[in-house]
Automatic annotation (TrEMBL):
Compositionally biased intervals (Low complexity): 1-20
One MF annotation (Gene Ontology) recorded for this entry: RNA binding
Gene source species: Pongo abelii (Sumatran orangutan)
NCBIfam families in alphabetical order: hnRNP-R-Q
Alphabetical list of SMART domains matching this protein: RRM (SM00360)
Start and end residues of each RRM domain: 71-144
Protein name: RBM47 isoform 8
Keyword Electron transport: no
InterPro entries xref list: HnRNP_R/Q_splicing_fac (IPR006535), Nucleotide-bd_a/b_plait_sf (IPR012677), RBD_domain_sf (IPR035979), RRM_dom (IPR000504)
GO cellular component, one term: cytoplasm
């Protein structure tokens, strides 16, 4: 092995070591340096999972329960090349962000929408008031509105002979917190709910 080979091996080892510290979803992003700078500035973590990149949740130094319902806003009409490094400064200007979830495609671009959860309800209301129609880029306005909690789960293909109570009983065996079961007839198969 020559001296040049040793230097090349050492620099590739150190590059591999430094990239191991970069969170999945941030490593290789077109704006990786800007995302790392944001994380360094705020102390928030970032991770990509299930088609979304999560920033925060909880914020550094957070003590207490998860924010209550009504603390989250939906952000739509996001240009596909806008990421957390541009969104966070806009949204933190109206309140403390608990968590920001940016929906992502497999190609690394955002899907045009995100959810921002604030620590308090009044901050979410202020975000809707002040940031709806905010011009994030020339001629590109964000849509910001209160997020609606969707706490329903659809389960299809249940045999028609099963009664509502039986379905509720079966679901209760594998999870908790189910309040009700609504049974609809299948439009495609009259033998199933």
């Amino acid at each position: 092995m020559t001296a040049e080979d040793s230097i090349a091996a050492m620099s590739s080892d150190s590059a591999a070591g430094s990239s191991a510290k970069v969170p999945e979803g941030v490593a290789g992003a077109p704006n990786e340096a800007a995302l790392l700078a944001l994380m360094e500035r705020t102390g928030y973590s970032m991770v990509q999972e299930n088609g979304q990149r999560k920033y925060g949740g909880p914020p550094p130094g957070w003590e207490g329960p998860h924010p209550q319902r009504g603390c989250e806003v939906f952000v739509g009409k996001i240009p596909r090349d806008v990421y957390e490094d541009e969104l966070v400064p806009v949204f933190e200007a109206v309140g403390r962000i608990y968590e920001l979830r940016l929906m992502m495609d497999f190609d690394g671009k955002n899907r045009g929408y995100a959810f921002v959860m604030y620590c308090h309800k009044h901050e979410a209301k202020r975000a809707v008031r002040e940031l709806n129609n905010y011009e994030i880029r020339p001629g590109r306005l964000l849509g910001v509105c209160c997020s609606v909690d969707n706490c329903r789960l659809f389960i299809g293909g249940i045999p028609k002979m099963k009664k509502r109570e039986e379905i509720l009983e079966e679901i209760a065996k594998v999870t908790e917190g189910v309040l009700d079961v609504i049974v609809y007839a299948s439009a495609a198969d009259k033998m199933k709910n």
